[in-house]
Each structure stands twice: as C-alpha cells, then as structure tokens.
C-alpha cells in the first residue's frame, strides 16, 4: 500500500503545480474552491478569492445570462479520467484517517512537508469538510464511492431513484486547447434541459492526496440546466449549470457578489460545473 500512497502523493503534487501555472495574457483560474456554497465562517478565504478571479471571468452569472446567443467567459477544461482517478473503495478509505486532528500523521504518511503548499491544501480541505454548513444545507465529504452514494440516497430519499449530471466535452471537440484551464468565451447555442429538483446534491473535487468530493445537499431553491456551448476554438460542450435562487445565507464576502456586483439575497447566483464535478438529482419519471 505504501507504493500506492506514494503514487497518489506524486499526483497531488502534480495537480497543485498545474493549478499554479499561468499562461501569458490569458486568464487561468481554479474553479474548485470558488463554486462551493460559502460557509459564513469562510470570509477570509473568500477575500483571498478576490485576488484569484479576474473580473472578466464570469465564473458566476445570473438567469438572464442563460439565453441563446449569450457569451460567457469561463474555464471548462477537458480533464479526462487521469487527473481525478476513481474514488477509493470504502474499505481502503476507512483505513486512512480523515480529520484535521490527524493532519501531522497524514503529512508524514504522504511524505508532505508541513510548510509546503500541499500541506496547506490538505489543511484547507479538512477544514472545509469539518466546518459548519450554511442554514438549509447538509454537507458531507465523500472519500469513497459507497459513502457518496449513501449520502445521495439519504438526501434524495432511500426509496427514490436518482441520476447524476456531468459536464461533457462532445466528440466533435477538436481544439487541443480544450485541455487547458484557460478562460475562454463560450456561446450558448441551445438549452437542452431545465429542472427545478425538489432535492439536489452537488459534489465538488478538492485538492487532496487522493480523490475526495465535498458534497452538499439542499431541498428546493435551485434550478438545474443542461446547456450546449460553442467554444471560441470550435469545441462543443454540454455543460451543467446550477442557479442557486436563495443566497440570503451566503457570506457577503463571497466572490460571486464581487463578480456580479450584488449582495446576499439580492439575486440568484448561477455557475457551470467543471467536468469532474457531479450534480445528483431525482431521476426523470
């Protein structure tokens, strides 16, 4: 198992290195921390996000932007299955401690220096997982596929069928730059589906030595869309977008309000889901 943990640690270092690289005059952003629902105690982190997101990058937008012909600048890189490998099995995940109090042990286990960016990313992930959710939200960090499915089932209903929605780069995507994290212009050419699910679970990847998902569930108050996007380099993407209709409990320092020029409760906040993020909703009848 030590060799396997070493390979995960190498991947973790590589991912953080890739996220830190810029590219000329084009804007490159890391979506993972930005699109999570903000805990009211995370104002200091959101302040940091102000410096991460270029104002021209519409990571967040409103319902009026979701119309045919609208152009939205965002980052939707094609990652493939190699960047975020599958979740551990429950047995393997439960054999590794997952809590902030075990951070020194975990840093030693994965051969990570306590003063490194990787250690900071691990600490941030664990703090996010252990922080209190906002009102009306249920939060859970899934370290295995089984634990994720259990959480989704508990949220949507033990007897209910559910489906997962993901952003897909379509087969006719031809641009090699679609693999990059650059912000590019995407034109909405079709809205293929609109849902107002009674319950929804969103799961976001976060930087950690192995794959984990920060999942949060809500009842009502969201609209989910599947949108066909045409990229400036010819790629086509079927993107999942979620609009949070009630933002009254969000931190006023959340970066979405800086981008939109608004404040908690004033308007809905919408965003696309990157390729590796998941949206779970009740299955179609």
TrEMBL record:
This is BURP domain-containing protein. Keywords: Signal. Residues 1-24 form the signal peptide. The keyword Signal applies. It comes from the Eukaryota. It comes from Turnera subulata. Residues 60-283 form the BURP domain.
């Amino acid at each position: 198992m030590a060799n396997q943990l070493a390979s995960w640690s190498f991947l973790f270092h590589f991912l953080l290195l890739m996220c830190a690289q810029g590219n000329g005059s084009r804007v490159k952003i890391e979506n993972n921390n930005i699109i999570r629902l903000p805990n009211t105690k995370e104002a200091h982190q959101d302040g940091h996000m102000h410096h991460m997101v270029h104002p021209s990058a519409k990571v967040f937008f409103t319902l009026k932007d979701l119309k045919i012909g609208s152009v939205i600048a965002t980052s939707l890189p094609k990652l493939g299955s190699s960047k975020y490998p599958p979740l551990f099995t429950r047995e393997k995940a439960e054999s590794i401690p997952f809590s902030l109090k075990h951070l020194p042990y975990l840093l030693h286990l994965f051969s990570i220096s306590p003063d490194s960016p990787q250690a900071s990313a691990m600490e941030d992930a664990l703090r996010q997982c252990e922080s209190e959710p906002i009102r009306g939200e249920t939060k859970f960090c899934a370290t295995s596929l089984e634990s994720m499915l259990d959480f989704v089932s508990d949220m949507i209903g033990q007897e209910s069928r559910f489906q997962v929605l993901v952003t897909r780069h379509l087969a006719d995507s031809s641009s090699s730059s679609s693999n990059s994290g650059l912000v590019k212009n995407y034109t909405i050419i079709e809205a293929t589906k609109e849902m107002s699910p009674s319950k929804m679970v969103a799961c976001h990847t976060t930087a950690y030595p192995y794959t984990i998902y920060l999942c949060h569930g809500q009842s009502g108050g969201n609209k989910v869309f599947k949108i066909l996007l045409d990229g400036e380099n010819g790629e086509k993407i079927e993107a999942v977008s979620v609009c949070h209709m009630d933002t009254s409990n969000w931190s006023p320092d959340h970066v979405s309000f800086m981008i939109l020029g608004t404040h908690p409760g004033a308007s809905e906040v919408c965003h696309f889901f990157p390729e590796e993020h998941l949206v779970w909703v009740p299955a179609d009848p």
